[in-house]
Amino acid sequence: MSEGKLIVLDGIDGCGKTTQFELLTEKLREMGISVQPVSFPEYDKPSAALVKMYLGGDFSSVPGGVNAYAASSFYAVDRIASYKLYWEEAYQRGEVILASRYTTSNAIHQMGKLPRAQWDAYLAWLEEFEYEKLGLPRPDCVILLSLPLEISQRLLMQRYDGNAGKKDIHEADLDYLQQCCVSAEYAAEKMGWRVVDCSDGENIRSIESIQEELLAILGEVIK
What we know:
Distance between the termini: 17 Å
CATH superfamily: P-loop containing nucleotide triphosphate hydrolases
Structural class: alpha/beta
Shape: globular
CATH architecture: 3-Layer(aba) Sandwich
């Protein structure tokens, strides 16, 4: 029995990830490919309780109030629970697992809390912790949806109908989100992620053009 393919779609909040994730799942199934979609955090499951408390500001009103390693562990617990309960068998059967966010999200959202000189050590810790210690599968491909912060913020406000009060502590902290953009770029280069630019620098590209580029990448991975 051969292992499947794990493909991760990631990016900062408001990059259009959910839309592309849903469209890719549908497209792959239309192509006759057996694919199981998973999305993190799994807010409707008990395993995400600490994540919800963290994002809701129970531990601190700002992201930096919970250090990178502690916050990373909250998300990792949710992932290993999901893997063992819901998609390990499908992965072991050789199916394609398409994930919206994964271990990669810790690199994007937590690494920037640390001094730049500690980033490489954090990435090494993250990989050992989640892939070696916890036993989560390593992705076969990580695709980063890259989008300037000002454009992603416009999309977020559309999602929340202009009500900024609906944002979690990550989404509400612009300095933090700007640091996430820097962290994402660094991690992508360091870890060999594929990067898809979702704008021309001023305006977002069409959903169709982004999806076409994503499908081309997936075609290289799923052979």
